[in-house]
Amino acid sequence: MSTTEHERLSRDTPVRCAVVTVSDTRTDEDDRSGHRIVSLLADGGHEIVAKHIVKDEPEQIVLMLDNLAVGADVIIFNGGTGISKRDSTFEAISAKLEKVLPGFGELFRMLSYEEIGPASMLSRATAGVFRDTIIFSTPGSTNAVGLAMEKLILPQLKHLVWEILRQQR
Questions:
Q1: Bridge-partner residues for 76, per DSSP?
Q2: What are the residue ranges spanned by the domains of the chain?
């Protein structure tokens, strides 16, 4: 079956999404990136089942991942993907992924390079599957979130979830 046929079959797939901002300083009032993700998902007709902010602590990130994977089809983390000592999202999430989607990070960095140049190599954006839930981890900047959502995540979201759900039938 072709990708086009898969996308056609998946167009009516309902998607329950959770959004997690990883930050030591953000609050709900100033979480522009988290709110942008929620807005883009809602505009795309997806259900938002949770929105949280967690500190950049591996234990908190993993606990949030474990808790949300029960009721969400997709969890989108933003923040903590850089190379500073406090950036631990990549390590926390990567250790839990059962299947990795390396193309997401590769494509994100390629598209990011077109916008910001070689600084794009500092991003450790990643994606994969954990407990039949699609996981994305993007940088926390509002521009990076917009790029990831509009160019990569939203165009394939229903198809990705459909691929997981069809295995359960």
A1: 19, 136
A2: 15-97+107-167
CA atoms within 13 A on the CB side of 131: 13
Q: What is the DSSP string of the chain?
A: --HHHHHHHHTT---EEEEEEE-SS--GGG-HHHHHHHHHHHHTT-EEEEEEEE-S-HHHHHHHHHHHTTT-SEEEEES--SSSTT--HHHHHHTT-SEE-HHHHHHHHHHHHHHHGGGGGG---EEEEETTEEEEEE-SSHHHHHHIIIIIIHHHHHHHHHHHHHHT-
Token pair listed for 131? 């407990």
pLDDT 10s digits, 5-26: 656 555 667 799 999 999 999 9
Q: If you classify domain 15-97+107-167 with CATH, what class do you get?
A: alpha beta
Q: Is 14 helix (H, G, I), strand (E, B) or coil?
A: coil
pLDDT in tens, 50-95: 999 999 999 999 999 999 999 999 999 999 999 999 999 999 999 9
Sheet containing strand 126-130, edge to edge, reads: 47-54, 16-22, 74-78, 133-138, 126-130, 99-100
* Enclosing H/E stretch for 48: strand 47-54
